Sequence to fold (469 residues):
Amino acid sequence: MSIRQKMLFAMAVSLFLAFTILGTAFLAVILEKTRSLAEETKSFYAVMTRNVIAAFNLDARERGEEMLRDLLPSSPLVKGWLIADEDGGIIAHAFPAAYGLEAGVHAAPETLGRLGVNTEPAVVLQRGRRRWTLYVASPEWAYLPADAGMIVLALFVGMLIVMGVAFGITESLVITPLASLAAASRLLHGGAMPPPIPGSARKDEVGELIRSFEAMAKEVMDYRQNMEQKVESETAKRLDAEKGLILAQRLSATSRLAAGIAHEINNPLAGVVNAVRALQRGGLPEDKKAEYFGLVLEGLSRIEEIVARMLAFQRGRPTMGVVRLPDVVETALSLASGPKLKNAKLLKNLEDTTVFGDKGELVQALLNIVLNAADAVAGAEQPCIRISTESNGAEAVVNVLDNGCGMSDEVRGHAFDLFFSGKEGGTGLGLAITHVIIENHGGRIAIDSSPGQGTAVTVRLPAEKGEAR
Fold:
Protein backbone atom coordinates (compact mmCIF):
# COMPACT_ATOMS: atom_id res chain seq x y z
CA MET A 1 0.00 0.00 0.00
CA SER A 2 1.44 3.34 -1.04
CA ILE A 3 1.64 6.35 1.29
CA ARG A 4 -1.10 8.03 -0.77
CA GLN A 5 -3.46 5.12 -0.13
CA LYS A 6 -2.54 5.07 3.55
CA MET A 7 -3.29 8.78 3.84
CA LEU A 8 -6.68 8.34 2.14
CA PHE A 9 -7.54 5.44 4.45
CA ALA A 10 -6.47 7.38 7.55
CA MET A 11 -8.50 10.43 6.50
CA ALA A 12 -11.56 8.29 5.74
CA VAL A 13 -11.38 6.69 9.20
CA SER A 14 -10.89 10.11 10.82
CA LEU A 15 -13.87 11.50 8.88
CA PHE A 16 -16.07 8.61 9.95
CA LEU A 17 -15.11 8.99 13.62
CA ALA A 18 -15.51 12.78 13.55
CA PHE A 19 -18.87 12.56 11.80
CA THR A 20 -20.08 9.93 14.26
CA ILE A 21 -19.03 11.98 17.29
CA LEU A 22 -20.30 15.32 15.97
CA GLY A 23 -23.53 13.80 14.61
CA THR A 24 -24.26 12.09 17.91
CA ALA A 25 -23.59 15.30 19.82
CA PHE A 26 -25.74 17.30 17.41
CA LEU A 27 -28.67 14.89 17.67
CA ALA A 28 -28.40 14.86 21.45
CA VAL A 29 -28.55 18.66 21.60
CA ILE A 30 -31.46 18.84 19.13
CA LEU A 31 -33.44 16.16 20.97
CA GLU A 32 -32.91 17.86 24.28
CA LYS A 33 -34.05 21.22 22.94
CA THR A 34 -37.13 19.81 21.19
CA ARG A 35 -38.12 17.85 24.30
CA SER A 36 -37.94 21.03 26.31
CA LEU A 37 -40.01 22.85 23.69
CA ALA A 38 -42.60 20.04 23.69
CA GLU A 39 -42.92 20.20 27.45
CA GLU A 40 -43.34 23.96 27.29
CA THR A 41 -46.06 23.52 24.63
CA LYS A 42 -47.87 20.99 26.82
CA SER A 43 -47.68 23.35 29.78
CA PHE A 44 -49.08 26.16 27.63
CA TYR A 45 -51.94 23.89 26.53
CA ALA A 46 -52.64 23.06 30.16
CA VAL A 47 -52.77 26.73 31.19
CA MET A 48 -55.05 27.66 28.32
CA THR A 49 -57.34 24.69 29.04
CA ARG A 50 -57.53 25.57 32.71
CA ASN A 51 -58.51 29.14 31.85
CA VAL A 52 -61.23 27.95 29.47
CA ILE A 53 -62.62 25.55 32.04
CA ALA A 54 -62.57 28.28 34.62
CA ALA A 55 -64.61 30.57 32.37
CA PHE A 56 -67.08 28.04 30.87
CA ASN A 57 -68.97 24.99 31.76
CA LEU A 58 -67.54 22.10 29.70
CA ASP A 59 -70.84 20.32 29.87
CA ALA A 60 -71.59 22.35 26.77
CA ARG A 61 -69.26 20.11 24.81
CA GLU A 62 -69.49 21.62 21.37
CA ARG A 63 -68.97 25.14 22.57
CA GLY A 64 -66.07 24.10 24.78
CA GLU A 65 -64.32 22.21 21.99
CA GLU A 66 -64.75 25.11 19.63
CA MET A 67 -63.30 27.54 22.15
CA LEU A 68 -60.35 25.26 22.93
CA ARG A 69 -59.56 24.78 19.26
CA ASP A 70 -59.57 28.51 18.77
CA LEU A 71 -57.45 29.23 21.81
CA LEU A 72 -54.93 26.33 21.61
CA PRO A 73 -52.55 27.02 18.71
CA SER A 74 -51.50 24.24 16.35
CA SER A 75 -47.95 22.97 16.81
CA PRO A 76 -45.83 20.32 15.02
CA LEU A 77 -44.98 19.06 18.47
CA VAL A 78 -48.61 18.21 19.26
CA LYS A 79 -50.62 15.71 17.19
CA GLY A 80 -53.76 16.24 19.18
CA TRP A 81 -55.30 16.65 22.62
CA LEU A 82 -58.36 15.46 24.52
CA ILE A 83 -60.13 16.18 27.78
CA ALA A 84 -61.75 13.41 29.77
CA ASP A 85 -64.13 13.78 32.73
CA GLU A 86 -63.77 12.02 36.03
CA ASP A 87 -65.58 8.95 34.64
CA GLY A 88 -63.17 8.71 31.69
CA GLY A 89 -65.59 9.97 29.11
CA ILE A 90 -64.12 12.18 26.41
CA ILE A 91 -65.86 15.55 26.55
CA ALA A 92 -63.56 17.44 24.08
CA HIS A 93 -60.76 16.58 21.66
CA ALA A 94 -58.83 17.89 18.66
CA PHE A 95 -58.36 14.60 16.75
CA PRO A 96 -59.71 14.02 13.22
CA ALA A 97 -62.95 12.08 12.77
CA ALA A 98 -60.97 9.12 11.45
CA TYR A 99 -59.94 8.30 14.99
CA GLY A 100 -63.58 7.55 15.92
CA LEU A 101 -63.83 9.63 19.10
CA GLU A 102 -67.61 10.02 18.97
CA ALA A 103 -69.67 10.57 22.08
CA GLY A 104 -69.59 7.84 24.65
CA VAL A 105 -66.02 6.78 23.98
CA HIS A 106 -63.94 6.57 27.11
CA ALA A 107 -60.26 7.45 27.51
CA ALA A 108 -59.28 3.87 28.25
CA PRO A 109 -55.57 2.89 28.04
CA GLU A 110 -56.11 1.09 24.73
CA THR A 111 -57.79 4.17 23.28
CA LEU A 112 -54.96 6.40 24.48
CA GLY A 113 -52.41 3.96 23.02
CA ARG A 114 -54.20 3.98 19.66
CA LEU A 115 -54.05 7.78 19.63
CA GLY A 116 -50.36 7.85 20.59
CA VAL A 117 -51.30 9.72 23.76
CA ASN A 118 -49.06 9.50 26.78
CA THR A 119 -51.09 7.78 29.55
CA GLU A 120 -49.56 10.23 32.00
CA PRO A 121 -51.88 13.25 31.90
CA ALA A 122 -50.46 16.61 30.97
CA VAL A 123 -52.60 18.32 33.66
CA VAL A 124 -55.53 17.52 35.97
CA LEU A 125 -58.20 20.25 36.01
CA GLN A 126 -60.35 20.68 39.14
CA ARG A 127 -63.53 22.80 39.43
CA GLY A 128 -65.51 22.32 42.56
CA ARG A 129 -66.22 18.65 42.92
CA ARG A 130 -65.71 17.98 39.28
CA ARG A 131 -62.37 16.98 37.77
CA TRP A 132 -61.14 16.82 34.19
CA THR A 133 -57.92 15.45 32.72
CA LEU A 134 -55.96 16.89 29.73
CA TYR A 135 -54.01 14.43 27.54
CA VAL A 136 -51.62 15.60 24.80
CA ALA A 137 -50.41 13.32 21.94
CA SER A 138 -46.96 13.97 20.35
CA PRO A 139 -46.31 12.65 16.83
CA GLU A 140 -43.44 10.26 15.98
CA TRP A 141 -40.16 12.11 15.44
CA ALA A 142 -41.80 15.14 16.88
CA TYR A 143 -38.70 15.93 18.80
CA LEU A 144 -36.66 16.28 15.61
CA PRO A 145 -36.94 19.52 13.65
CA ALA A 146 -37.90 19.25 9.98
CA ASP A 147 -34.52 20.45 8.78
CA ALA A 148 -32.50 18.09 11.01
CA GLY A 149 -31.71 15.80 8.03
CA MET A 150 -30.46 18.74 5.97
CA ILE A 151 -28.28 19.84 8.86
CA VAL A 152 -26.74 16.36 9.17
CA LEU A 153 -26.20 16.17 5.40
CA ALA A 154 -24.61 19.62 5.36
CA LEU A 155 -22.37 18.55 8.24
CA PHE A 156 -21.26 15.44 6.33
CA VAL A 157 -20.65 17.33 3.07
CA GLY A 158 -18.72 20.00 4.93
CA MET A 159 -16.49 17.44 6.59
CA LEU A 160 -15.99 15.70 3.23
CA ILE A 161 -14.89 19.00 1.69
CA VAL A 162 -12.55 19.64 4.60
CA MET A 163 -11.05 16.16 4.16
CA GLY A 164 -10.59 16.74 0.41
CA VAL A 165 -8.87 20.08 1.00
CA ALA A 166 -6.68 18.54 3.71
CA PHE A 167 -5.74 15.65 1.43
CA GLY A 168 -4.96 18.02 -1.43
CA ILE A 169 -2.68 20.07 0.80
CA THR A 170 -1.01 16.92 2.14
CA GLU A 171 -0.65 15.59 -1.42
CA SER A 172 1.04 18.79 -2.55
CA LEU A 173 3.26 19.35 0.47
CA VAL A 174 4.24 15.80 1.45
CA ILE A 175 3.10 12.93 -0.79
CA THR A 176 4.23 14.31 -4.18
CA PRO A 177 7.75 15.24 -2.95
CA LEU A 178 8.10 11.82 -1.30
CA ALA A 179 7.02 10.08 -4.54
CA SER A 180 9.58 12.14 -6.47
CA LEU A 181 12.25 11.17 -3.93
CA ALA A 182 11.33 7.49 -4.28
CA ALA A 183 11.56 7.67 -8.09
CA ALA A 184 14.91 9.47 -7.87
CA SER A 185 16.28 6.87 -5.44
CA ARG A 186 15.32 4.08 -7.87
CA LEU A 187 17.18 5.85 -10.67
CA LEU A 188 20.22 6.30 -8.43
CA HIS A 189 20.12 2.63 -7.47
CA GLY A 190 20.10 1.75 -11.16
CA GLY A 191 23.27 3.76 -11.77
CA ALA A 192 21.70 6.86 -13.36
CA MET A 193 21.87 10.42 -12.08
CA PRO A 194 18.30 11.50 -11.15
CA PRO A 195 16.97 14.79 -12.55
CA PRO A 196 16.37 17.78 -10.22
CA ILE A 197 13.50 17.12 -7.80
CA PRO A 198 10.75 19.80 -7.58
CA GLY A 199 10.57 21.47 -4.17
CA SER A 200 14.27 21.84 -3.41
CA ALA A 201 13.76 25.59 -2.82
CA ARG A 202 11.26 25.01 0.00
CA LYS A 203 12.33 26.29 3.43
CA ASP A 204 10.81 23.46 5.43
CA GLU A 205 11.89 19.93 6.39
CA VAL A 206 10.79 18.46 3.05
CA GLY A 207 12.93 20.98 1.15
CA GLU A 208 15.89 20.17 3.39
CA LEU A 209 15.35 16.46 2.76
CA ILE A 210 15.30 17.00 -1.03
CA ARG A 211 18.46 19.14 -0.94
CA SER A 212 20.25 16.55 1.20
CA PHE A 213 19.24 13.76 -1.17
CA GLU A 214 20.43 15.67 -4.24
CA ALA A 215 23.77 16.40 -2.55
CA MET A 216 24.11 12.73 -1.58
CA ALA A 217 23.21 11.63 -5.13
CA LYS A 218 25.92 13.89 -6.58
CA GLU A 219 28.48 12.49 -4.13
CA VAL A 220 27.46 8.92 -4.98
CA MET A 221 27.71 9.54 -8.73
CA ASP A 222 31.11 11.26 -8.34
CA TYR A 223 32.34 8.40 -6.19
CA ARG A 224 31.00 5.84 -8.68
CA GLN A 225 32.63 7.66 -11.59
CA ASN A 226 35.95 7.87 -9.75
CA MET A 227 35.73 4.18 -8.87
CA GLU A 228 34.98 3.24 -12.49
CA GLN A 229 37.98 5.27 -13.65
CA LYS A 230 40.18 3.66 -11.00
CA VAL A 231 38.91 0.20 -11.95
CA GLU A 232 39.63 0.88 -15.63
CA SER A 233 43.08 2.23 -14.78
CA GLU A 234 43.90 -0.69 -12.49
CA THR A 235 42.60 -3.16 -15.06
CA ALA A 236 44.79 -1.62 -17.74
CA LYS A 237 47.78 -1.75 -15.37
CA ARG A 238 47.01 -5.38 -14.56
CA LEU A 239 46.79 -6.30 -18.23
CA ASP A 240 50.07 -4.50 -18.94
CA ALA A 241 51.68 -6.25 -15.97
CA GLU A 242 50.35 -9.61 -17.13
CA LYS A 243 51.64 -9.01 -20.63
CA GLY A 244 55.03 -7.98 -19.25
CA LEU A 245 55.10 -10.99 -16.95
CA ILE A 246 54.13 -13.31 -19.77
CA LEU A 247 56.83 -11.84 -21.96
CA ALA A 248 59.41 -12.14 -19.17
CA GLN A 249 58.36 -15.72 -18.48
CA ARG A 250 58.50 -16.41 -22.19
CA LEU A 251 62.02 -15.00 -22.45
CA SER A 252 63.06 -16.99 -19.40
CA ALA A 253 61.58 -20.15 -20.89
CA THR A 254 63.26 -19.37 -24.20
CA SER A 255 66.60 -19.02 -22.43
CA ARG A 256 66.16 -22.38 -20.76
CA LEU A 257 65.11 -23.92 -24.06
CA ALA A 258 68.08 -22.37 -25.86
CA ALA A 259 70.48 -23.78 -23.28
CA GLY A 260 68.90 -27.20 -23.57
CA ILE A 261 68.83 -27.02 -27.36
CA ALA A 262 72.51 -26.05 -27.46
CA HIS A 263 73.28 -29.06 -25.31
CA GLU A 264 71.04 -31.31 -27.41
CA ILE A 265 72.52 -30.09 -30.72
CA ASN A 266 76.05 -30.81 -29.52
CA ASN A 267 75.41 -34.57 -29.50
CA PRO A 268 74.48 -35.03 -33.19
CA LEU A 269 76.82 -32.19 -34.17
CA ALA A 270 79.80 -34.00 -32.66
CA GLY A 271 78.96 -37.11 -34.71
CA VAL A 272 78.61 -34.98 -37.87
CA VAL A 273 82.00 -33.32 -37.25
CA ASN A 274 83.74 -36.67 -36.69
CA ALA A 275 82.16 -38.14 -39.85
CA VAL A 276 83.17 -35.12 -41.96
CA ARG A 277 86.75 -35.23 -40.67
CA ALA A 278 87.00 -38.94 -41.54
CA LEU A 279 85.68 -38.22 -45.02
CA GLN A 280 88.11 -35.32 -45.34
CA ARG A 281 91.09 -37.57 -44.65
CA GLY A 282 90.06 -39.79 -47.55
CA GLY A 283 91.20 -43.32 -48.34
CA LEU A 284 87.91 -44.84 -47.16
CA PRO A 285 86.16 -47.64 -48.92
CA GLU A 286 82.80 -46.89 -50.56
CA ASP A 287 80.73 -48.64 -47.97
CA LYS A 288 82.43 -46.69 -45.21
CA LYS A 289 81.90 -43.43 -47.06
CA ALA A 290 78.21 -44.27 -47.39
CA GLU A 291 78.01 -44.99 -43.67
CA TYR A 292 79.67 -41.67 -42.78
CA PHE A 293 77.42 -39.77 -45.20
CA GLY A 294 74.38 -41.43 -43.56
CA LEU A 295 75.61 -40.34 -40.12
CA VAL A 296 76.01 -36.78 -41.39
CA LEU A 297 72.48 -36.73 -42.83
CA GLU A 298 70.98 -38.25 -39.67
CA GLY A 299 72.72 -35.75 -37.41
CA LEU A 300 71.74 -32.79 -39.57
CA SER A 301 68.12 -33.98 -39.73
CA ARG A 302 68.10 -34.24 -35.94
CA ILE A 303 69.45 -30.70 -35.63
CA GLU A 304 66.95 -29.44 -38.22
CA GLU A 305 64.02 -30.90 -36.27
CA ILE A 306 65.17 -29.33 -33.00
CA VAL A 307 65.65 -25.92 -34.63
CA ALA A 308 62.25 -26.12 -36.35
CA ARG A 309 60.48 -26.76 -33.05
CA MET A 310 62.40 -23.91 -31.45
CA LEU A 311 61.36 -21.52 -34.22
CA ALA A 312 57.76 -22.65 -33.94
CA PHE A 313 57.77 -21.82 -30.24
CA GLN A 314 59.72 -18.53 -30.46
CA ARG A 315 57.83 -16.87 -33.28
CA GLY A 316 57.41 -13.33 -31.87
CA ARG A 317 55.46 -11.28 -29.35
CA PRO A 318 52.21 -12.98 -28.29
CA THR A 319 48.85 -11.42 -29.16
CA MET A 320 46.70 -11.41 -26.02
CA GLY A 321 42.92 -11.27 -25.93
CA VAL A 322 39.74 -13.10 -24.92
CA VAL A 323 39.77 -16.59 -26.50
CA ARG A 324 37.03 -19.24 -26.69
CA LEU A 325 38.36 -22.63 -25.60
CA PRO A 326 36.04 -24.55 -28.00
CA ASP A 327 37.70 -22.64 -30.89
CA VAL A 328 41.14 -23.61 -29.56
CA VAL A 329 40.10 -27.27 -29.44
CA GLU A 330 38.68 -27.28 -32.96
CA THR A 331 41.76 -25.57 -34.39
CA ALA A 332 44.13 -28.00 -32.64
CA LEU A 333 42.13 -30.99 -33.89
CA SER A 334 42.20 -29.70 -37.46
CA LEU A 335 46.01 -29.33 -37.26
CA ALA A 336 46.42 -32.76 -35.69
CA SER A 337 44.56 -34.61 -38.43
CA GLY A 338 46.55 -37.67 -39.44
CA PRO A 339 46.36 -41.46 -39.70
CA LYS A 340 46.73 -41.98 -35.96
CA LEU A 341 43.98 -39.50 -35.08
CA LYS A 342 41.67 -40.62 -37.88
CA ASN A 343 41.79 -44.21 -36.61
CA ALA A 344 40.73 -43.12 -33.10
CA LYS A 345 37.17 -42.46 -31.99
CA LEU A 346 36.95 -38.79 -31.06
CA LEU A 347 34.34 -37.69 -28.50
CA LYS A 348 33.84 -33.99 -27.80
CA ASN A 349 31.80 -32.16 -25.14
CA LEU A 350 32.67 -28.50 -25.50
CA GLU A 351 31.07 -25.99 -23.12
CA ASP A 352 31.34 -22.38 -24.23
CA THR A 353 33.96 -20.83 -21.93
CA THR A 354 36.57 -18.11 -22.46
CA VAL A 355 40.08 -17.31 -21.20
CA PHE A 356 42.54 -14.45 -21.64
CA GLY A 357 45.61 -15.41 -23.64
CA ASP A 358 47.31 -15.95 -26.99
CA LYS A 359 45.19 -18.20 -29.17
CA GLY A 360 48.16 -19.45 -31.21
CA GLU A 361 50.13 -20.53 -28.14
CA LEU A 362 47.07 -22.21 -26.61
CA VAL A 363 46.46 -24.09 -29.87
CA GLN A 364 50.10 -25.21 -29.88
CA ALA A 365 49.85 -26.40 -26.25
CA LEU A 366 46.67 -28.37 -26.87
CA LEU A 367 48.03 -29.71 -30.18
CA ASN A 368 51.00 -31.27 -28.33
CA ILE A 369 48.61 -32.93 -25.87
CA VAL A 370 46.36 -34.28 -28.66
CA LEU A 371 49.35 -35.62 -30.65
CA ASN A 372 50.65 -37.43 -27.55
CA ALA A 373 47.16 -38.91 -27.02
CA ALA A 374 47.06 -40.04 -30.67
CA ASP A 375 50.46 -41.74 -30.29
CA ALA A 376 49.32 -43.40 -27.03
CA VAL A 377 46.15 -44.97 -28.54
CA ALA A 378 47.89 -46.17 -31.72
CA GLY A 379 48.15 -49.73 -30.38
CA ALA A 380 44.73 -49.92 -28.69
CA GLU A 381 42.05 -52.27 -30.00
CA GLN A 382 39.39 -49.54 -29.91
CA PRO A 383 41.31 -46.27 -29.75
CA CYS A 384 39.27 -43.42 -28.20
CA ILE A 385 40.09 -39.86 -27.25
CA ARG A 386 37.70 -37.70 -25.19
CA ILE A 387 38.03 -33.91 -25.16
CA SER A 388 35.88 -31.59 -23.04
CA THR A 389 35.84 -27.98 -21.94
CA GLU A 390 33.94 -26.66 -18.94
CA SER A 391 33.66 -23.67 -16.63
CA ASN A 392 34.43 -24.36 -12.98
CA GLY A 393 33.84 -21.11 -11.14
CA ALA A 394 36.84 -18.84 -11.72
CA GLU A 395 38.58 -21.47 -13.85
CA ALA A 396 38.19 -22.80 -17.37
CA VAL A 397 39.10 -26.47 -17.68
CA VAL A 398 40.20 -28.59 -20.65
CA ASN A 399 40.26 -32.38 -20.23
CA VAL A 400 41.93 -34.76 -22.72
CA LEU A 401 41.47 -38.47 -21.91
CA ASP A 402 42.68 -41.46 -23.90
CA ASN A 403 42.57 -45.26 -23.50
CA GLY A 404 46.14 -45.72 -24.65
CA CYS A 405 49.18 -47.40 -23.12
CA GLY A 406 49.47 -44.99 -20.17
CA MET A 407 52.61 -43.93 -18.29
CA SER A 408 54.62 -45.28 -15.42
CA ASP A 409 55.17 -43.11 -12.35
CA GLU A 410 58.77 -42.46 -13.42
CA VAL A 411 57.82 -41.31 -16.92
CA ARG A 412 54.94 -39.21 -15.58
CA GLY A 413 57.28 -37.52 -13.08
CA HIS A 414 59.58 -36.33 -15.94
CA ALA A 415 56.88 -35.68 -18.54
CA PHE A 416 57.44 -31.90 -18.50
CA ASP A 417 61.25 -32.01 -18.45
CA LEU A 418 63.11 -30.62 -21.46
CA PHE A 419 64.21 -33.27 -23.96
CA PHE A 420 62.73 -36.11 -21.93
CA SER A 421 60.55 -38.46 -23.96
CA GLY A 422 58.92 -41.72 -23.02
CA LYS A 423 58.49 -42.80 -26.64
CA GLU A 424 60.95 -43.78 -29.26
CA GLY A 425 62.03 -40.97 -31.58
CA GLY A 426 60.55 -38.23 -29.40
CA THR A 427 62.35 -34.91 -28.94
CA GLY A 428 61.13 -34.23 -25.40
CA LEU A 429 60.00 -30.72 -26.38
CA GLY A 430 56.23 -31.13 -26.81
CA LEU A 431 55.00 -31.36 -23.20
CA ALA A 432 57.83 -29.11 -21.99
CA ILE A 433 56.66 -26.35 -24.34
CA THR A 434 53.04 -27.02 -23.36
CA HIS A 435 53.93 -26.72 -19.68
CA VAL A 436 55.68 -23.37 -20.25
CA ILE A 437 52.75 -22.00 -22.30
CA ILE A 438 50.14 -22.98 -19.69
CA GLU A 439 52.19 -21.49 -16.85
CA ASN A 440 52.75 -18.29 -18.85
CA HIS A 441 48.97 -17.99 -19.04
CA GLY A 442 48.62 -18.30 -15.26
CA GLY A 443 47.30 -21.85 -15.50
CA ARG A 444 48.18 -25.37 -14.36
CA ILE A 445 48.55 -28.70 -16.13
CA ALA A 446 48.30 -32.13 -14.49
CA ILE A 447 48.67 -35.70 -15.74
CA ASP A 448 46.95 -38.73 -14.24
CA SER A 449 48.09 -42.01 -15.79
CA SER A 450 48.87 -45.63 -15.10
CA PRO A 451 50.39 -48.25 -17.40
CA GLY A 452 47.69 -49.87 -19.51
CA GLN A 453 44.96 -47.61 -18.02
CA GLY A 454 45.19 -44.63 -20.35
CA THR A 455 46.06 -41.04 -19.58
CA ALA A 456 44.07 -38.01 -18.43
CA VAL A 457 45.58 -34.54 -19.00
CA THR A 458 43.80 -31.63 -17.25
CA VAL A 459 44.54 -28.00 -18.08
CA ARG A 460 43.18 -25.27 -15.81
CA LEU A 461 43.25 -21.62 -16.90
CA PRO A 462 41.80 -18.45 -15.31
CA ALA A 463 38.35 -17.83 -16.78
CA GLU A 464 37.76 -14.47 -18.44
CA LYS A 465 34.43 -12.87 -19.31
CA GLY A 466 34.18 -10.86 -22.49
CA GLU A 467 33.75 -10.96 -26.25
CA ALA A 468 36.13 -13.41 -27.92
CA ARG A 469 38.23 -12.00 -30.76
User: Anything to note?
Assistant: The chain has three domains: 1-195, 222-317, 319-469. The first strand starts at residue 80 and ends at 84.
